């Protein structure tokens, strides 16, 4: 009885893959995109497989981004890592410091002789995933940035110009008051609270999120988000929440739903929200760039990106890849950089066109005239002349997943009235620095 | 403890014990040992570098004001779940004990929530208390109470307590009813003839008689609230807002799985193991006593 | 004398009143307890728009069949940000997991209890205590190191990984041990005189006598297995092995009001129905199992 049960149980799970000699080299690829995006990504892998017969990319969905990250790290520790893993941008700092766990893209390309024209990539995208000297560490793929979506009907009802979204926070505050007066129950909300209101906010105002150039300069970076401008902004949000001008929509992407269903007239969210709004919103809507505080010297400049990139991983702590496997990974990355692939992904999903030439070509064809506002994210990334400063390159902090959660928690406490903005940001800095110091210590060598 | 007449042999009993011992060894003792060992280490997420830090992880955890806040949350949450689930169950059990006809039918109608998974219970209550689509959530908002558990810590805590207690009432009900029905009828009748009022009769006679059951249930309910409610919190609030609904188990999960802080997570596991050992010891002391009754 | 009679009459009146109140309280209790399920059942028969607007009706709508069909075959593939796993797959996974855990636990515990009770051999007590001590190591407490062990053994994303580690059980072993201790020594003596060995005694005597206990335990353990959450959540990220309890919470995601609540409610009904039916239909064994395993 015992034997049969155990044998049965094991047989159910342990049907391992058999690899024959003449078959194509398998490239395991783990991603964290849910439907319908996941299906589109898997289609790209299928197209690559159909284009040649040396390599076969096996794409599999491994849960949300954080789940995929945990699964890949656990697999690496067991010597079973996938060849390629999709990692969200918050995990970048952790991956950069991962030493021999990852195979940097620049090394991969140099060893295999495969070329990818990274010069043509959007500077904000390139910067986020490269070393200070410009060498690429991972392969950029789905990238977005934060923008504003607003309800034109609500603007009209409040007597505001639906074609001119306020550019500054000061003007936006007045607009929100008028929306409220016109009977809009929720004038403003946000998704991804830390990303839109702290990370993007710091970048466009050209103020540091952390020392060492937001961590690009080394693991000894310290958070700087308790600066006067950040405090002023968070205190405004808290006060506006109390006044009914602003509504906290919840952590991560929870706030997304409040815009397409018409509850809130304005949302600060990911440019990737566009597809959903297009599908669901029953009202005319517009896209605008993130507002800034008038009177801050040098503001506004470019915003930073979000989304995910692909990392090539070694198999385990004591195992590397064969030259053949590396060539397969490099070939697949080169496939992802093809203009038609970049273009299709941008047009169908609403993520950014990561290559400038693709953007220009679509512009010339009139794509953005037919899809008004679809170019706002790209133009916002190029705002201020596209000359990124060390505050607007991106964020390179270890343990940033945890730090984001900490900032959200402290913001939530402020929104509940348990502390003011200064206290919230001081606490966030203090708790976040503990995470940074631990990370620094764990990754010293 | 042992039978007088037994079979001889060593190979057979060892073979019979083997599956249990192998599973216990691999999936209980190995990880437990691993937890203790990791609790003394600082590691990077990929396991490429490690440092032996003695009790530093414990020191960090126990001096972290947020950990203490989470411990306090856990205490509040567990106490509230235990009191609510036991109070309601006792009340219903007393009523069912009085109702002679149909007691079995009521029993059937009251015990089934035990079978509902905590995470599923969370989904049911979410559907009732969602601020925008829930029947109660909307009613509360319409009544002028700003109900939004995503931003109000007290409301979030209330919601997870209700969902957790709802499921546990049936379990307590079964035990209370069994306890009440084992009280000899003549004891109660004698008291009734003495003219003691029902409420007084309950507190002076009935309640002391079922106190062993009550104590047993208290331990079981606390263990339930500590360990089995992960699904409710994960599905409903993810520990928020702030840290308002984060419990000790939830924090082990967050630190280990989301933050990849294996050392700290392991130290927390060790602390919890000590706690479970203490709780189990209490439970067994009690059962020893009950045997002597 | 008359005073006593009046008192008795008053007591009877009070008892009658008490009983009426008891019925009322019980009825209210039952209704309160059933209400969340009622709303779920009702919710599963309306269309997504009705629920999404928050116009939650208290009575059934006309869309029940299609909602259940959608959940069953596609898991609500139209829903954004959700895992597209048909409820049929998830139910099958849950049923398999729950059954394997229950059967495995019972088999393993039966054998070890038999060894501990009917044999004298060196290390007997040590083995017993090793099993007993696992009571103090609930899986939730040591979840991360256990996950690492599973990764090392390559057992993540397998049905074996989902079930085998949960098969060791101190409570079930204790229960069977206690039960075996009540089997009279004369039975063993008689068996021995007939020339029956331990294997035959197990098959012909111990096992048949344990049938009620096995049934009782099966009910409890099936529910235990079905309702597992944290374990499958961590152990499985391959969609084909998704269980319905975990899959359901993934469908609600972050509690988005734009979710396809009708499909979710239909899935919730399917997630809770099997264990509830087991409890209701096997009530006698359920109560026996519950009260005996916990002592």
Automatic annotation (TrEMBL), chain B:
| Source taxon at top rank | Bacteria
Query: What Gene Ontology cellular-component terms does the record carry?
Result: plasma membrane
**What biological process terms from GO does the record include?**
transmembrane transport
- Compartments it resides in: Cell inner membrane; Cell membrane
Q: Which residues cross the membrane?
A: 12-32, 70-94, 106-128, 156-180, 201-227, 266-287
Q: How does it sit in the membrane?
A: Multi-pass membrane protein
Gene3D superfamilies associated with the record? MetI-like
Name the family the entry cites.
Belongs to the binding-protein-dependent transport system permease family.
State what this protein does: Part of the ABC transporter complex UgpBAEC involved in sn-glycerol-3-phosphate (G3P) import. Probably responsible for the translocation of the substrate across the membrane.
Could you describe the subunit structure of this protein?
Answer: The complex is composed of two ATP-binding proteins (UgpC), two transmembrane proteins (UgpA and UgpE) and a solute-binding protein (UgpB).
Query: Could you identify this protein by its name?
Result: sn-glycerol-3-phosphate transport system permease protein UgpA
From TrEMBL, chain C:
Topology versus the membrane: Multi-pass membrane protein
Question: Which regions form coiled coils?
Answer: none
Q: How does it assemble?
A: The complex is composed of two ATP-binding proteins (UgpC), two transmembrane proteins (UgpA and UgpE) and a solute-binding protein (UgpB).
Report the residue ranges that make up the ABC transmembrane type-1 domain in this protein. Answer: 91-282
- One Gene Ontology term, aspect cellular component: plasma membrane
Q: What is this protein called?
A: sn-glycerol-3-phosphate transport system permease protein UgpE
Q: Which GO terms describe its biological process?
A: transmembrane transport
Function (record text): Part of the ABC transporter complex UgpBAEC involved in sn-glycerol-3-phosphate (G3P) import. Probably responsible for the translocation of the substrate across the membrane.
Domain of life per record: Bacteria
Tell me the protein family, please: Belongs to the binding-protein-dependent transport system permease family.
Q: Which UniProt keywords apply?
A: Cell inner membrane, Cell membrane, Membrane, Transmembrane, Transmembrane helix, Transport
> Where are its TM segments located?
20-41, 95-119, 126-144, 164-184, 205-226, 264-287
Give the species this sequence originates from.
Neoroseomonas alkaliterrae
Which cell locations does it reside in?
Cell inner membrane; Cell membrane
